[in-house]
Design goal:
This protein is of the alpha/beta class. It is 50% helix and 21% strand. The chain is built from 11 helices and 9 strands. An 8-stranded mixed β-barrel has the order 1-2-4-5-6-7-8-9, surrounded by 6 helices. Helix 3 packs parallel to helix 5 and helix 5 packs parallel to helix 7. It is globular, with a radius of gyration of 21 Å. The structure holds ligand C2E and magnesium ion (MG) (3 copies). One magnesium ion binds next to loops. One magnesium ion (MG) binds next to loops. This is Cyclic di-GMP phosphodiesterase Gmr. It comes from Methylomusa anaerophila. It is found in: Cell membrane.
Amino acid sequence: YAKEAKMNGYSRFDSSMHEAMLQRIKLENSLAKALERNQLELFYQPQWDVALNKPVAIEALLRWNRSNKGRVFPGDFIPIAEESGLIIPIGRWVLLEACRFCAYLHSLGYDDIYVTVNLSARQAEQPNLVDSVRETLEEAGLEPRFLELEITESLFMNSLESCKDKFRQLRGMGIRLALDDFGTGYSSLTRLRLLPFDVLKIDKEFLREINAEQSEIIRTIIKLAHVLGMEVVVEGVETVEQAKFAADALSDRVQGYYFSQPLARENLLTYMARVY
Ligand code: C2E
Ligand code: MG
Ligand code: MG
Ligand code: MG
């Protein structure tokens, strides 16, 4: 009896593994098609400058509009795109699209707005990263100083050494580099000193509960970032209290639902017309 139960257990496990694998292959295939069929879309979330009290940047955030399945969020497909390598063509599309939209905003008179684009570790590791970014900017007609690239700390720590040189070249062109989701990965405060970043984005987890200790931690991170010559963005600002706290802690920029959700192009234009 025990043996039979074990066998059944095993075969059930086996078939669910099989099922999961099939699901994954299907998802990978439809993601590849989505790129060709124009089903990928960028949303844009404003970042406000605290001192100027107006939006100064927009972060491009990828959405996948699946024909029958509605909108899929990056958490559900970026990992698959990364593992399959699809993130390379997708990332190239994202960068071009985001830079073009930023150039378009400039043409409408919002001529100091810059765009921030998330770069996956896999993209950062590409040997031709620098040329590819340069060509994309040229194609979009956007000056490098209007582009900020965000790299999640936990994703690239393994390959940091191999990327450092490329990062230096990107910065040499005038592109800013931001360390995304700071606090979720492994970089210590002291390691920050060694990293070639212009901007530190403090992860939204830090805002979840602002007690005395937590708030002192955030203030200290911001002070240190400033000592190291970095700008700070506090993400995940959802309430007026959090917005006040971030400003009081001397964050340079703030981003979150309190200011705006990520918006489709048209809605972003409406938003800009209202608040800029
Ligand atoms: P991220 O770069 O840290 O982006 C911020 C995420 O927080 C976004 O989720 C955004 O919608 C969400 N968010 C913004 N404000 C708030 C807030 O006030 N409260 C809360 N709870 N959440 C807020 P989203 O759009 O689902 O993206 C998730 C992650 O997927 C991004 O995190 C980024 O790491 C990745 N991602 C998005 N687009 C791209 C892309 O084009 N390329 C790559 N490689 N990764 C991307
Ligand atoms: Mg980001
Ligand atoms: Mg992230
Ligand atoms: Mg983040």
